Amino acid sequence: MKALATLVVAGIMQLGFAHAALAQDDLAKIQSAGVLKIGTEGTYPPFTFHNASGTLEGFDVEIGREIAKRLKVNPQFVEGKWDGLIAGIDANRYDVVINQVGITPEREKKFDFSEPYIASKAVLIVNDKNSSIKSFADLKGKKSAHSLTSNYAQIARKYGAEIVPTDGFNQSIDLVVQGRADATINDNLSFLDFKKHKPSAPVKIIATEENAEKSGVLLRKNNPQLKAAIDKALEEIKADGTYERISQKYFGADVSK
């Protein structure tokens, strides 16, 4: 019996060591390769988009570059549509997703997140000529434009809206402008940036949700070393003034709270 017990304990210890080794794999692989692969849309200004010269830039892009810098590796951005972006983590297309991924209980069941690095509020956006929608409750039976798997689509469904599928923020706004959708729900920071560049666009905010949504860097579960390294990098970015510089550049305000 003692011999059996010893074997069982030894087996458990081996499993523990194996688990610990696996937990280190992603960070070790990233550092060995010298590259942090980052999943992002590239079509979601001001967070991740292509400028006039075609260069990828944005708030999330700069945060990703600063994280990679502090991990002492190079950033490599892998672009994809939002509806398949998170699934790309499972397919090992990249190491993390930095794309305004809201931290939700449902996602936390399957993935890990860094500490939050930005907060935003959901706003209800309609055409300037629309007078039938004055609150989220008025979405019942109306058409609301969204990426199918976004948090905002879930909010719209909660209020009884019919979802019109889109590829992202810009297309959602276009459908509202064209009258092909009655509304869209999105984050206030994206809308303020949009209006800054297109002040004459015939769209407006008519309602705002009280609770701010916090977003974090999304990564595979069971990678405590990678999570700790990213959290440390984010802490350094905020402490040395880098976050404030990036935040002011895109929003004119501190968006970490």
TrEMBL record:
- Please name the source species: Kosakonia radicincitans
Which terms in the GO cellular component ontology are assigned? outer membrane-bounded periplasmic space
N-terminal signal peptide: 1-20
CDD domains reported in the protein's UniProt record: PBP2_Ngo0372_TcyA
Q: Does the keyword Signal apply?
A: yes
InterPro entries from the xrefs?
SBP_3_CS (IPR018313), Solute-binding_3/MltF_N (IPR001638)
Name of this chain's protein: Cystine transport system substrate-binding protein
* Taxonomy, superkingdom: Bacteria
Major location (coarse):
other
